[in-house]
Amino acid sequence: MRDDNKINIVLAGQGNSGKSTIFNYLTGLHQHIGNWAGKTIEKAEGTLFYRDHMVDVLDLPGIYSLTTVSEEELISRSYIIKQNPDCVINVVDSTNLERSLIFTLQLLELERPVIIALNMTDLAKRKGITVDVKKLQKILNVPVIPTIASRGSGLTRLVDKAIDLKTGKPERTIHKYGKEIEQGIEKLSDQLKGIDLPYPLRWIAIKLLEKDSDITARVSELKPRALESSLRIMEELEEIHGHDSPLVIADERSLLASRITRETVRIAKDRELSLNERLEVLTTHKVTGYLFMILILGGMFLAVFSFGNRLSEWLDSIFSGWHDLWEAAVGTSFWPALGWSAIESVLALIQIAFPYILPFYILLYLLEDWGYIARISFLMDKLMHKMGIHGKACISFIIGLGCNVPGCLSCRIMESKRERFITAVLVTLVPCSAVSVIVFGLVGKYVGLLWALGLYIFATVLIFIVGKISSKLMIGEPVELIMPMPDYKTPNIKTIFSQTWDSLKEFIYIAAPIVIVSGVVIQGINLAGWMPAIASVMSPVTVNWLGLPAVTGILLIFGILRKELILVMLAAYLGTTDFNEVLTSQQMITLAVVSMFYVPCVATISVLWKEYGWKKALVITLAETAFAIVLAGLVKRGLDVFMV
Amino acid sequence: MHHRHGAGDRRGCINLTGLDDGQSGIIVSVMGGEMLTKRLADLGITPGKELKLIRKTLFSGPVQVEVAGSKLVIGWGLASKIMVEVK
Predict the structure, then answer these.
(1) In this predicted complex, what is the ipTM?
(2) Domain ranges in chain B?
(3) What percent of chain A has pLDDT over 70?
(4) Lower Cβ count inside 10 Å, N or C end of chain B?
(5) Which residues on chain B are in Cβ contact (under 8 Å) with A261?
(6) pLDDT, tens digit, for every residue of A539-591?
(7) Out of A65, A244, A483, whose CB is closest to B73?
(8) Range of the structural domain that residue A107 is part of
């Protein structure tokens, strides 16, 4: 393909403006989407072929500023520059135009070709907000295209425009600051002439006045004189305005954004409240908010449990005759027995884990797409402060309920390193869907639903205590919560099912092979007669301390791969899912407690390693294992007294 | 610490947490470190702007506000550093 038929686009904008939704639509890829700011933590690239062009699309994490405060901002900024995109598509949430424009104005200062995707126009309409697109286009002097990313509306026009823009040379409008600032910028731009940096001079001058650490460092190396005069100008600005020059600039930009908004946005008054707006009041109210939270989360667990049980029983009735059929067909010698253990492992996975994981993910993504997770953060912020972190950590906890891996990764939404680490440690204690399989399928089903709920409450209390302790151990200034509150939106069924499918795919492609291999290995060990020897090595812990059958030792080892293996392998090994034939109620609860808190699974350990280094990952792994064993032993002793 | 406009030197000026649910005010100043003030400015919280307190939570939890046409949640400690003039 010829070079002039290639075009590259960068999607940039504030959090939760719909960048990833546009990206998914254009590239056919599956970036995770949901209704809260901060989902995209790593850039994503994809390609689209359109009108004889090869269009490379880059999706960036949401940022609120181009003056670097956080690492994400530095990364996103350097991509906008280094990628040298033919066009930056600034995705703007039209229900939040004023706030979005603060970022847009900064983006325009970079003097790259910009197209504005005025997104979520359907939601704006429902809120009675009308944006005068033509006027906005005229004021900003860049193309503005209304879009509804969730329905794909306006997105091809966006790409059309990007292709057109490549051939034409856009003119630019400079959005000016106050007189003193402009004088300073002019003076600095003059002195910066000839500097070897890939940025516009005006932009470098502005960033110097904003005390951008990255730019200041580079200018001090290349043009120390310009830096000196920038310091003088800043002093003058501070004298005139009475506060720091970065704030003078931020203030003026923010006021400019409100001026543009006033000129282009009309909001209808006396509109009737929509259902979502009424729910907003109920679910964030200081009393009913908490009642709804208990109702929603409690309802979710009940639904998962009852649906899971029913589906599991139905599958059991289907699979029950298969073993006899297999033996009748191929016999009962060593190899057929080994073959059956492979089949049995997969059947057990389908029958035990799948029925609970399926409704779990559907409901989780429903809450996420609706926008409820941000409400939990709001309601729980105060409690989180007692653990030295803030409300946003709840987002990671809720995601961790699905799987600890994305839960740990999402900790990047926390602002400081200390908070990130505390939150990640706590996320590893959150019972993920694999652990829920054990809690529901073993304790819930055979001991009682109240015991299962009790285990969740137990885990919550424990997380609180560990959080409290770690906030005391890791001293540091607690960061305050600042979080954009997304509006509720009607959940998109297609999004929910496609994200559920993405999570289940992992189940098919990764869990199933692991389960088959583990099943065959365990059965092989058993048939070779090595089981008692291996089991006895671990029996001081499993049998003597935890009071579990010796076979659980080897299951707990396999459980490090994936926690649902503990239960799935137990079923495969026994050849039955009637666990009450081999385990007492006390043993079930003890096993569930160990499974909940011991070693995070391999995938989680590797994420911890990647994010925090191998030392911390190792310490967490060993500490949690020791902790889980001690705890479960104590629980067992407690149960011996109370459950007779 | 940067005191913008010097807080509290104007009459009728209270911190954000003193507003009642549904009450509006004009932002007078933000007291806080450079990073924090900058972060708030990026979200549209700058002197001169109108801000509406939507609701508070129990026990000095975070407050929900509407500013620059969008909704934000702000922790109590931070909210008490934002000075407003009641409308």
Answers:
(1) 0.86
(2) 2-86
(3) 98
(4) N
(5) 68-69
(6) 888 888 999 988 888 888 888 888 888 888 888 888 778 888 889 999 999 99
(7) A483
(8) 3-167
